[in-house]
Design goal:
The structure is a single chain. The protein has one domain (about 30-285): Aldolase class I (TIM Barrel, Alpha-Beta Barrel), CATH 3.20.20.70. It has 8 helices and 11 strands. The chain has helices at about 40-45, 80-90, 105-120, 135-140, 155-165, 170-185, 210-225, 255-265, and strands at about 30-35, 50-55, 75, 95-100, 125-130, 145-150, 190, 195-200, 200-205, 230-235, 270-275. The protein has an 8-stranded mixed beta sheet. Strands 9-10-11 form a 3-stranded parallel beta sheet, covered by helices on one side. Helix 7 links the parallel strand 9 and strand 10 (about 230-235). It starts with about 25 loop residues before the first strand and ends in a 20-residue tail after the last strand.
């Protein structure tokens, strides 16, 4: 089968070979557990039932989950077993099922979601993505996904090519996010403050790149309005393998404050922020080739 799931359009037969994402036709999962380090509306007190898939269609040189990037770490899961894990996480009290880096695994995930819902799974489903997605792939999830957590990493094509090998990142990502918004609208929460439906756009402020953060925020306001829920993240943590300047250092307080000032000047009203103390390895959970669920 010729793979056209993502914008790379590899057209690889993934039953016989791996594409740019490093994935075969069977998903590998490197962690499935309750996770407490998402936004409060996602993690809450009970945790988010988070499933980390191996492999990625971006190659971000600063990725905190670099061990998953090449698609080799993790345990293979059929759609039936994936549905079982979703149900087990729900039974543990998860607020939602959180699919992290799901892009290459569309067909298996859709099968698993349909099966799990037929068995009675009723908590919200979260699609946690880098946003390098085709509109067609996002459209295939309509009615299955309740909450979208898309990144909007860059506007500047020079940055997206240099840091993620995707010069076309912005036009591709913004079209995908527009489709997400069409499906579920901006994020809404219940009386307990937990997300039940909608989109929250995430942006990680990168060191030395506040100029592009300003453009990201301007694009979000222009397309979705100042009421659009966003997460402005300060948790950038340099990894040893990333020696490219300016990504070889942490974000400074001055840089993050400049990003916050831009948010205020644009009139954003629904912004999740972080302390600079959020920097560190604690945001990278342990991964392995065996899942205990």
């Amino acid at each position: 089968m010729s793979c056209t799931i993502c914008p790379r359009n590899c057209k690889i037969d993934r039953t016989a070979a791996k594409g740019f994402c490093g994935c075969s036709s069977v998903p590998l999962i490197a962690r499935a557990a309750l996770h407490y380090d998402e936004e409060p509306s996602i993690s809450g007190k009970s945790g988010s039932g988070t499933i980390f898939f191996s492999g990625c269609n971006l190659k971000c040189i600063f990725c905190q989950n670099m061990v998953l990037q090449d698609g080799t770490l993790g345990e293979p899961f059929t759609p039936e077993r994936l549905a079982d894990v979703m149900q087990k996480l729900a039974a543990l009290g998860a607020n939602n099922i959180n699919l992290v880096t799901p892009t290459p695994h569309k067909d298996a995930i859709i099968q698993a979601l349909r099966l799990a819902k037929e068995r009675g799974l009723s908590i919200p489903i979260v699609y946690n993505t880098n946003s390098y997605e085709t509109v067609e792939t996002i459209r295939a999830y309509e009615g299955l996904i309740d909450i979208y957590l898309p990144d909007l990493k860059y506007v500047d094509a020079r940055l997206s090519q240099a840091f993620s090998r995707a010069a076309d990142y912005f036009p591709v990502a913004i079209a995908a996010i527009e489709e997400m918004m069409r499906q579920v609208g901006p994020m809404v929460t219940n009386e307990a403050g937990l997300a039940v439906r909608g989109v929250r756009i995430r942006h990680l402020v990168l060191p030395g790149c506040v100029f592009d953060t300003r453009e990201v925020l301007r694009e979000i306001k222009e397309r979705f309005g100042a009421d659009c829920p966003i997460s402005l993240m300060s948790q950038y943590t340099p990894i040893p393998s990333c020696t490219r300047k300016p990504l070889d250092r942490p974000l400074t307080k001055r840089e993050y404050e400049a990003a916050l000032d831009c948010c205020l000047s644009l009139g954003f009203t629904n912004v999740y922020t972080q302390e600079l103390s959020s920097v560190g390895a604690s945001y990278t959970p342990p991964f392995s080739d065996h899942v205990d669920l």
